[in-house]
């Protein structure tokens, strides 16, 4: 098992968001984090970079053909993967902000690129949705509901391969936290795999998160912790494109985040899909609180010592 080391240096990767308000939403959340000084909460040196993401093959992205969007997600994943791999080879911890759940394939691809396809990577996915759909299970056809299935090798290999994922992620290394809104066929698919559904807080459905995370941490070299802001109850993210009611509050989510970071195994953290659209800045405030709270916890608990694969 890899020993835990103090969090000593951070690479922040800011990615623009797409969706309602398009790039503006991503620019606003990324700029809000910088202006609020949230990255200083880690109390370690950090570099900030905004990778040059490929332009969508038309405007808006969701108006393109299905295959164009799959290809674009793979190309965007490759850009994120390159940034993640470069930072991991420099032994930096990774924080991705802005962007959306599509970027998860790039984070996983970058970790594999740096540490090798045999690296034992675990994924802890905080989201109101499973994002475990395939083209055969989805109701809406949205690619935003598929990145976990893509990472696991269950769908859209072009997206996965372009994102530099050499080895699909075994489903017994996936914990889905909350996922209170699942398509019926998506839920059946999850139940047919070894993925675990865990509760974000007492009183919510799912396995005990602390026990599930402890089991995962004992079997992996590192963890990628992914947080979609819509895990929060809709009151905290009123402009989120996929907000859902009856979710956990900020205190409950940050407590669950702390439980994952307490393993000392988190090498990469993404906090995505924080939108600003309207007169209220509640979503940005929630994003700032999520990033700040997570960084303070990460500083307390540390990160794994892992070796990179030299290429």
Sheet of most strands:
8 strands, parallel
Question: Span from first to last CA?
Answer: 24 Å
Shape by Cα distribution: globular
Total strand count, please? 10
Quickly give the structural class: alpha/beta
Walk me through this protein's architecture.
The structure is a single chain. The protein is an alpha/beta fold. The protein has a single domain, classed as Ureohydrolase domain (Arginase, Chain A, 3-Layer(aba) Sandwich), CATH 3.40.800.10. The chain has an 8-stranded parallel sheet with strand order 3-2-4-9-8-5-6-7, with helices on both faces. Strands 1-10 form a two-stranded antiparallel sheet.
Compile the SSE list and pairings.
Elements lengths: L3 E2 L4 E6 L6 H15 L9 E4 L16 H24 L3 E6 L5 H12 L5 E9 L17 H5 L5 H6 L11 E8 L2 H9 L3 E3 L10 H9 L4 E7 L21 H12 L4 E7 L9 H20 L1 E2 L7
Parallel strand pairs: 2-3, 2-4, 4-9, 5-6, 5-8, 6-7, 8-9
Antiparallel strand pairs: 1-10
Helix pairs in contact: 1-9, 2-3, 8-9
Summed up:
With 311 residues, the chain is α/β, with parallel strands linked by helices.
Which short descriptors sum up this protein?
311 residues; Arginase, Chain A; eight-stranded parallel beta sheet; two-stranded antiparallel ribbon; 9 helices
């Amino acid at each position: 098992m890899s020993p835990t080391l103090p969090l000593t240096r951070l690479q922040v990767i800011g990615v623009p968001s797409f969706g309602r308000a398009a790039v503006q939403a991503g620019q606003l959340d990324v700029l809000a984090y910088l202006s609020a000084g949230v990255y200083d909460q880690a109390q370690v040196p950090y570099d900030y970079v905004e990778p040059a993401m490929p332009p969508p093959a038309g405007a808006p992205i969701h108006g393109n053909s299905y295959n164009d969007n799959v290809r674009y997600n793979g190309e965007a994943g490759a850009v994120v993967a390159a940034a993640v791999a470069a930072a991991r080879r420099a032994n930096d911890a990774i924080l991705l902000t802005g962007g959306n759940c599509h970027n998860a394939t790039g984070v996983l691809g970058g970790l594999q690129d740096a540490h090798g396809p045999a690296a034992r990577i675990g994924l802890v996915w905080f989201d109101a949705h499973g994002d475990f759909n395939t083209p055969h299970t989805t109701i809406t056809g949205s690619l935003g509901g598929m990145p976990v299935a893509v990472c696991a090798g269950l769908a859209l290999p072009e997206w996965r391969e372009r994102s530099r994922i050499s080895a699909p992620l075994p489903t017994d290394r996936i914990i889905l936290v909350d996922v209170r809104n699942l398509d019926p066929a998506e839920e059946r698919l999850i139940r047919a795999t070894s993925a675990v559904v865990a509760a974000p807080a007492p009183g919510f459905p799912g396995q005990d998160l602390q026990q599930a995370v402890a089991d995962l941490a004992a079997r992996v070299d590192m963890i990628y912790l992914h947080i979609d802001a819509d895990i929060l109850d809709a009151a905290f993210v009123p402009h989120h494109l996929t907000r859902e009611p009856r979710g956990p509050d900020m205190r409950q989510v940050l407590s669950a985040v702390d439980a994952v970071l307490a393993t000392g195994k988190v090498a990469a953290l993404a906090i995505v899909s924080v939108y600003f659209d309207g007169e209220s800045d509640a979503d940005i405030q929630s994003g700032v609180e999520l990033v700040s709270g997570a960084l303070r916890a990460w500083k307390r608990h540390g990160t794994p010592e892992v070796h990179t694969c030299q290429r």
